[in-house]
Amino acid sequence: MKGLMSAVLHNFGLKVISLALAVGFWLAVARDPVAEVAVEVPIEFRNVPDNLNISSATVPRAQIWMRGPERAIHKLATSDVHAELDLSGAGPGRRTFELDAGRVRHPHELEVVQIVPSDLTVTMERTPATLRNGVPSNSQ
C-alpha cells in the first residue's frame, strides 16, 4: 500500500498540470461543433492536349459539400476550393470522368462530403488548325 501511495504522490504537481492541460485541450476541441456548407466552383481542366479542344459553350460547375469544424467553415472562401480534371492522355470524342474527393483541392481541416454532379461528360474535338508563328496551318 505504501508503494502505491508513493507512486501517486511522486511528481504530483506535474500530474495535476498534465491532467488540467488534457482536460483543457479536450474542452477546446469538443466545443467546436461540426458544420457543413456547399460551395459552387468551376471545374478546372488541366493538361488539355495541344491538338484538342473542349467543345462546351459554358464552363461546367460543381457543387461541393464540405464538412468540418464550424470555425473553419466560417473562414472558407470559394477560392479555397478547386475541382480539377486532368485531361492528359485524352483523345477526341466523349469521355466521362468521375468527380470524387481526390479531384478536389480544399483546406486540410475540411472533408469533402458530396460532389454534385458526381460525374462529368466531356467532348473533346480535334483543333481544326494550329497556329505556327501566328499563321494558321492545317498540318498537325
What layout of secondary structure does this protein have?
Layout: H1 2-9, H2 12-30, E1 34-46, E2 52-54, E3 61-69, H3 70-75, E4 82-86, E5 93-98, E6 104-105, E7 111-116, E8 119-126, E9 130-132, E10 135-137
Parallel strand pairs: 1-4
Antiparallel strand pairs: 1-3, 2-8, 3-7, 4-6, 5-8, 9-10
Descriptive account of the structure:
- The chain has a five-stranded mixed β-sheet with strand order 6-4-1-3-7. The protein has a three-stranded antiparallel β-sheet with strand order 2-8-5, with no helix packed on it. A two-stranded antiparallel ribbon has the order 9-10.
- By secondary structure, the chain is α+β, with helices and mostly antiparallel strands.
- 24% of the residues lie in helices and 41% in strands.
- Strand 9 and strand 10 form a beta hairpin.
CATH classification, class level of the largest domain? Mainly Beta
Q: Enumerate the strands of the largest sheet in spatial order, edge to edge or round the barrel.
A: 6-4-1-3-7
Overall tally of domains: 2
What is the overall shape?
elongated
Structural class: alpha+beta
Quaternary status: single chain
Mean pLDDT: 83
- Taken as a percent bin, the fraction of beta residues is 35-45%
Task: Please state the CA-atom Rg, rounded to the nearest Å.
Answer: 27 Å
Low-confidence stretches: none
Tally of contiguous helical segments: 3
- CATH architecture heading of the largest domain: Beta Complex
